[in-house]
C-alpha cells in the first residue's frame, strides 16, 4: 500500500485499492448531495474505474473531545473503539481517487462531516509541526508501518458542494477552507471544486438537466485517466 500505511481495523481484510471512492456527507437521504455523488460515481464507472459510494450518515462518528490522546500517541484515537471513524479513514486512504460531496449548512459543512474532520486531528499530530512523524494507520500496539510525512499531499481528491442559497459571494469559502485542510491532512491535494447554488428542494438537482450536465462534465474531468491534482492559490489562513 502506498507510503506503507495499513488500515486501522483488523477485521477489514486487505483489498486492492478502489480507484474512486465518493463520500456523500448529507444527513438527508436521496437529496442533492446523494444525486451528485451518484452522478460522479456513474462518470467514474463510465471511465472504467472501480467505484464505491459511501454515505456518511450510515456510519457513527463521535465528535472529537479534545482529550489530547493523539498528541501523545500520534495517529491514535481512543474513540475509535466505539465508532466507525477508524474504518472510514482507512477506506478513504485506500482510495486512489477521492471525492467529498456535501451540502452547505450555515456557510459550513454539516455536523456529521465536521465531526469526521475534527477526528482527523490524529493526522495533524503526525506532522512536523506536532513532532516526529509517525504512521497514523499503524496497529493498536503502536507498530509503525511507515511515516505519514513520506506521503506527499498530491494524491487526487476533489470537493463538490451543494447549497440551497442562490446568493452570497463567500457562500462556499468556509467549507472549502475546512475541507482543503482536511484533505491535506489525509495527504491529498484537492483539485478545483464543483460549487452548485440554488438546490434546496430534495430533487432540485435531479430535476435540472443543466445542472446534471454540469456535474457530469466536472466529474469526467476528475476521473479521466492521468488527471493530476491541481494546486490552489495559497489559503487565507493556515490549517492549524
Strand proportion, as a percent range, falls in 5-15%
Roughly how many Å is the radius of gyration? 17 Å
Task: Specify the structural class.
Answer: alpha/beta
What's the story with the biggest beta sheet? 6 strands, parallel
Oligomer: single chain
Helix content: 25-40%
How far is it from the N-terminal to the C-terminal residue, by CA?
28 Å
- One letter per element, helices H and strands E, the order comes to EHEHHEHHEHEEH
Output the number of helix runs.
7
Mean pLDDT: 82
Blueprint (SSEs and pairs):
Layout (H helix, E strand, L loop, with lengths): L19 E5 L7 H15 L4 E5 L13 H4 L12 H10 L2 E7 L7 H9 L1 H4 L30 E8 L10 H13 L2 E3 L3 E3 L12 H15 L17
Parallel strand pairs: 1-2, 1-3, 3-4, 4-5, 4-6
